[in-house]
């Protein structure tokens, strides 16, 4: 279509933009000015467009974060419900392994149970005395840790594959029965990227999983 035809159409339909106000947001309409100066109206329109664009970008970020959080919550719910159906440690570890690997996409993870006695299970067992010197900084926080592990921490948690773990999250599994704090073990999640378990991402869902998995584990080891 030629520009003259567009001009003629607009001339024949003076109410066109009244019915299509959204088009004005993306149009650049010059105003008579002197030199390099622009009119106040044009300046206002430019600022409004910039503000609208920023708000749109912020809105998209919020929507993206909300969708990601919803997805994580649904996966967490499936993990907890599956864990509640387990009647043994081996079944529980198998469920955790399957969902972390296939739904959460966590390439490396290790479940370690703290116990002074032999455990009738294939789960990895360590005494708290062995863990404390290595995980002292993590356990002292009594919360979930996210970030880069020290060489000693990575070796203890992930063993032979420790060199592949670039970032990790460590979830303490804790019993608070009768107000007494007792470490049952840890669940370590590892990634081959630095960004996956960054300290800046927060630990809301990690804490949520830590508390619920702790409750399930406590039921199974009693």
Please give a structural write-up.
This protein is 50% helix and 14% strand. The protein has 222 residues and is of the alpha+beta class. Strands 2-1-5-4-3 form a five-stranded mixed sheet, with helices on both faces. α3 (40-84) runs antiparallel to α4 and α3 runs parallel beside α7. The longest helix is centred in the N-terminal third of the chain and has 45 residues, at 40-84. The chain is elongated, with a radius of gyration of 28 Å.
Q: Features of this protein?
A:
222 residues; alpha+beta; 7 helices
Largest sheet: 5 strands, mixed
Strand order of the largest sheet: 2-1-5-4-3
* Secondary-structure element pattern, one letter each: HHHHEEHEHEEH
Mean pLDDT: 81
The helix fraction, in percent, is 40-55%
Count of β-strands: 5
Choose one word for the global shape.
elongated
Cα-based radius of gyration, to the nearest Å:
28 Å
Low-confidence stretches: none
Strand percent estimate: 5-15%
C-alpha end-to-end distance: 79 Å
Helix/sheet category: alpha+beta
Count the helices. How many? 7
Short recap of the structure:
This protein is 50% helix and 14% strand. It is built from 7 helices and 5 strands; from the N terminus they run ααααββαβαββα.
Topology:
Layout: H1 3-12, H2 16-19, H3 40-84, H4 89-102, E1 108-114, E2 124-126, H5 128-140, E3 145-147, H6 151-158, E4 167-175, E5 182-191, H7 204-221
């Amino acid at each position: 279509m030629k520009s003259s035809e567009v001009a003629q159409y607009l001339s024949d339909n003076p109410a066109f933009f009244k019915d299509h106000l959204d088009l004005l947001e993306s149009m650049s309409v010059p105003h008579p000015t002197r030199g390099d100066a622009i009119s106040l109206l044009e300046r206002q329109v430019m600022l409004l467009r910039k503000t609208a664009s920023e708000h749109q970008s912020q809105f998209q970020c919020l929507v993206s974060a909300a969708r990601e959080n919803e997805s994580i919550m649904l996966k967490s719910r499936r993990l907890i419900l599956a864990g509640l159906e387990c009647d043994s440690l081996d079944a529980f570890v198998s469920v955790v392994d399957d969902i972390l690997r296939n739904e959460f996409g966590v390439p490396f993870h290790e479940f370690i149970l703290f116990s002074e006695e032999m455990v009738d299970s294939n789960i990895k067992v360590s005494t708290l005395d062995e863990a404390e010197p290595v995980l002292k900084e993590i356990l002292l926080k009594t919360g979930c840790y996210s970030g880069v592990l020290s060489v000693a921490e990575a070796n203890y948690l992930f063993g032979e594959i420790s060199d592949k773990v670039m970032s990790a999250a460590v979830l303490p599994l804790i019993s608070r029965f009768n107000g007494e704090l007792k470490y049952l073990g840890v669940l370590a999640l590892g990634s081959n990227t630095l960004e996956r378990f960054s300290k800046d991402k927060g630990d809301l869902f990690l804490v949520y999983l830590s508390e619920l998995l702790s409750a399930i584990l406590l039921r199974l080891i009693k």
